[in-house]
Hints:
Layout (H helix, E strand, L loop, with lengths): L1 E12 L1 H7 L14 E3 L7 E2 L9 E2 L4 E3 L2 H9 L5 E4 H10 L3 E2 L9 E6 L8 H15 L1
Parallel strand pairs: 2-5
Antiparallel strand pairs: 1-6, 1-7, 1-8, 3-4
Amino acid sequence: xxxxxxxxxxxxxxxxxxxxxxxxxxxxxxxxxxxxxxxxxxxxxxxxxxxxxxxxxxxxxxxxxxxxxxxxxxxxxxxxxxxxxxxxxxxxxxxxxxxxxxxxxxxxxxxxxxxxxxxxxxxxxxxxxxxxxxxxxxx
Length: 139
C-alpha cells in the first residue's frame, strides 16, 4: 500500500435532499437528518465537525455501506448527508450535484488516499510509473 496524497473531507448533501429535508444550520441539527456512513472502520463515522465535543462528531448512520462510492451514489440520489473525501467528490461539487453543509463548523481534516496493489517484481516498474502519474494528477 502506498499513500498518494492526503485528501480533505467534507460533509455534503445533494440540493434535492436539502430542499426536501432542510439545510442543517448547526452540528446538532444533523440528529434530525438521514446520515450516510461506513460499515467499517468506525473511524470513518467520526465527522470533522467542531463543537463542544471537540473537532470530531461521531454519527449514528441510518444507512451504511462498505464503499465510499456507494455512499457517494446514495448522496447524489438524495438519500442523505455524507462525509467524503474531496478526491471522490470534486466533480460533483463543481457541477453542484453535491454541496457542502456546515462549512464554518468543519475542521480541516485530511485523510490519506492510498494505492493498494500486490507487489510483483515483474510489474514493479509499471506500478511505479502509474503511482507517479496518480500522485501528479491527484497532488
